[in-house]
Design a protein that fits this description.
Number of helices: 9
Helix content: 25-40%
Strand order of the largest sheet: 3-2-5-6-7-8
Shape: globular
CATH topology of one domain: Rossmann fold
Number of strands: 17
CATH superfamily of one domain: P-loop containing nucleotide triphosphate hydrolases
Largest sheet: 6 strands, antiparallel
Structural class: alpha/beta
Radius of gyration: 22 Å
CATH class of one domain: Alpha Beta
Distance between the termini: 44 Å
Length: 373
């Protein structure tokens, strides 16, 4: 799909055409159809706007934009389970997706009527998001930036999920040996070989994703961020395996594995000023983050062949009028179906598209179109 970008052809679009919710968070039931244009979702705080876009985020692998467990998504007080269904139209055709949980069980997925693993969603849909909880990303602990980097990587390298899961399993087993103060060299050798193999795959995927973001054109109105992978020690399979073996005494003392991809960090610099993101103003940090998300969307559009849906929760409220216009222009140029939330419709002046109002009703959240009010 890279050839599409080389010839300058505009990629296709991934469009959410239909969405239905059943007993999801504050929504007892909802059935919505969309044209493919950006959607502004407005209404009072606590009415269920974020719940609506959280449901859309579950059309991609993982726990969605809040990182919630399946049982946490069920409507209260019933807790009978929940279901989200959708139709997605893309360059490869239409797909019907269903995801649900019953009786507190884990999340299940069907694609075109067939049971599928969550990871299979990555072959059908790539969904990106930005939430208020991410605003302090550049100030947070490394684990939060690493989690963000892995979401970016997963959107561009779907196989990254399998490598990450395999690495985490081996890491848990090695850490258990360390806590038990085991001295069984054969067990360590086997686990470290697995960690090294999967760790090298993780490192390669992360670096590939960052390289793709670096290729994205600058977005007018938003500063460019220079991103880098901050890793200690070797990341090739042989070098990482040797480093893990040499580090066993230190790890035994610590009771955990102290080196590897699970300790990496994401570095970010405001390119025009040469200033680390963590030292920038709050407004600059927010603008940098939006720029990264837009670069991610550009890269997905080129690699996947379709601009991904963007979920932008309360983003407009924290931007001045000029930056809001710049954001809406960027969304239009990208051709993405964006879903934006905010408390008032005035925040979305200049954004061509659909409007939804979410408000409290007698039985939970109610969704209306302005024409119906």
């Amino acid at each position: 799909m890279r050839d599409r970008a080389k010839d300058g052809a505009r990629p296709g679009r991934l469009i959410l055409r239909r969405l239905t919710l059943s007993h999801f968070r504050s929504h007892a039931a909802a059935a919505l159809a969309f044209s493919g244009a950006p959607v502004a979702i407005f209404g009072p705080n606590g009415a269920g706007k974020t719940n609506l876009i959280e449901a859309i985020s579950l059309l991609s692998p993982g726990r969605g934009l809040r990182g919630a467990a399946a049982e946490e998504l069920a409507r209260l007080p019933e807790r009978i389970g929940w279901k989200v269904t959708a139709r997605l139209d893309g360059p490869g055709g239409a797909h019907e997706i269903a995801t649900w949980s019953e009786g507190g069980a884990g999340r299940r997925v069907e694609i075109d009527g067939k049971v599928a693993a969550q990871s299979a969603l990555g072959g059908v849909a790539r969904v990106l998001w930005l939430t208020p909880a991410m605003d302090r990303l550049w100030m947070e602990v490394a684990a939060e930036r690493r989690r963000f980097l892995d979401r970016v990587t997963l959107s561009l390298v779907p196989d990254h999920a399998q490598a990450a899961l395999a690495y985490d399993r081996a890491l848990r087993e090695r850490n258990r040996l360390l806590r038990d103060e085991s001295r069984d060299a054969a067990w360590y050798d086997a686990l470290e070989a697995r960690l090294a193999e999967e760790g090298a795959r993780i490192d390669t995927a992360r670096r590939r994703a960052l390289a793709r973001l670096a290729e994205a054109p600058a977005t007018p109105g938003f500063p460019r961020g220079e991103l880098s992978l901050l890793a200690e020690g070797p990341r090739d399979a042989e070098g990482l395996r040797d480093a893990l073996r040499e580090n066993r005494p230190r790890d035994l003392a610590a009771g955990r594995t102290t080196l590897g991809p699970h300790r990496d960090d994401l570095g970010a610099v405001y390119a025009a000023k040469g200033v680390e993101a963590r030292l920038c103003s709050t407004g600059e940090q927010k603008a940098l983050l939006i720029g990264v998300v837009l670069a991610n969307a550009w890269a997905v559009a080129r690699d996947f062949g379709a601009a991904p849906p963007l979920l932008l929760d309360e983003v407009a409220a924290h931007l001045d009028a000029d930056r809001r216009r710049a954001l809406y222009t960027a969304i239009s140029n990208l051709g993405a179906q964006a879903f934006l939330t905010g408390t008032g419709s005035e925040l979305f002046e200049g954004l061509d598209g659909e409007r939804l109002r979410v408000e409290d009703g007698p039985d939970g959240s109610m969704i209306r179109r302005p024409d119906d009010l």
